[in-house]
Structures are given as C-alpha cells and as structure tokens.
Specification:
With about 210 residues, the chain is mainly α. The protein has eleven helices and no strands. About 75% of the residues lie in helices and about 0% in strands.
C-alpha cells in the first residue's frame, strides 16, 4: 500500500470514528436529559470536538438527527426490515416487517421515545427527521396494502386504502409502546400480538388443513 493511500485510509477511519462519537454523544444526551433541547455545542463537548466539526460532518441539526435515527435503526436491525419488504409473498412481508420493526423500536426504546416526543417541540430538526421516517413507513404500508390486494390476501370488504390505514396504525411506535412499555410485554410477544391483530383486521382467512 502506498503512503498516500495509507494516509487516506487513516483519515477516513478517523473521520468515521469521529462521526460515531458524535452520534453516541447525542444518544447519551437524550438518555441523560430527555426533556432538554439538544444543543450542538453540548454534543460537541461530549464527543470532544468543536461545534464546527459537528456541522462540517452533518451539515445541520436536521442532518444530525437524520443520522442519529439511521444509526439507531441500522444497529437495531434495519436490514431485516428492508429484507422483509422484499419477500415474494405479501403476507410474509407483513409478518416479517412487523417483527423487524418491533425489534428496531425495542432496540433503543427510550431514545426513540424521546425523539418522537421532541418532534413537535423541535419541528425543524427532530420533527423533520421523524417526519421523514414516518413518510417512509407510510409509503411502505401503502405498497404492502396494494400487494395484499393484488395477491388476493385482503379480507372481503376491506379495500387497499382501509388496509393501509389499519397497517399504518398497527405498525406505529405508539402501538408498539402501548404494549412494550404500557403492558411491559417482551418485544417478541408484542410482535406476535401486532401480527395477529394485523392479519385478523385486513387479511383473508386461509382454509385450515
């Protein structure tokens, strides 16, 4: 390896570690002070970098919170959620998707709860990030509802639009948290209950035997 290429690799590794330290600093701050606004200066101090470094890496507070969400979701199993959407059968996608989403929410529940709660108070940064996550989820539920319809999996009398609304409700963080935190159920139990509720609400019954 040439000296130039080695130096480039070292700089890239250092940049990646700095980026991760900043993201972990945001998560640490959200856990420690969930009711307080997240100040970039404070995040920089926790991460051991200047405020300007945070902006140089993420561009804005909105970019920072987008990255925090992606970081949390990716390490909690976002790939499994993507894979679920690619399953060849719609009902299989529904089941696998709900189970993957439940694992993501449970992976760092307290931080996700803070981000959703902060969204209305900080509409430009946190709210924008949460809004994008919710828009992605909404588009996914619309696609899933259409697939269920096209594969003949919808219950009689249930339209794709009705299925979309129902799935939107059942796959929300709020639905998850009512069971996970409100009823203190394990994540796998929450997933099983939500899958059963979704199938009973929108899917056609399959013949037994």
């Amino acid at each position: 390896m040439s000296t130039r290429r080695y130096e480039q690799r070292v700089r890239a590794d250092q940049a990646a570690r700095t980026r991760q330290r900043i993201l972990e600093a945001v998560i640490e701050r959200l856990r420690a002070a969930p009711t307080e606004p997240v100040a970039v200066e404070r995040i920089g101090a926790i991460a051991g970098v200047a405020r300007s470094t945070v902006y140089a890496i993420f561009g804005s507070r909105a970019g920072l919170f987008n990255a925090v969400g992606a970081y949390i979701f990716e390490r909690a199993g976002y790939r499994e959620l993507v894979d679920a959407a690619r399953r060849p059968d719609a009902r299989g996608s529904l089941r696998a998707g709900i189970r993957a989403a439940t694992a993501i929410f449970a992976g760092d529940r307290d931080v996700v709860r803070v981000l959703y709660s902060m969204a209305q108070l900080d509409e430009q940064a946190v709210g924008g990030a949460v809004g994008r996550w919710e828009a992605e989820r909404g588009a996914g539920m619309a696609r899933l509802a259409r697939r269920l319809r096209d594969e003949g999996e919808l219950r009689a009398g249930v339209s794709a639009e009705q299925a979309e609304h129902t799935l939107w409700m059942l796959t929300s963080f709020e639905s998850f948290d009512l069971l996970f935190t409100g009823r203190r159920l394990p994540a796998d139990h929450v997933a099983t209950l939500l899958i059963a509720a979704a199938e009973r609400s929108v899917c056609a019954e399959r013949p037994s035997g």
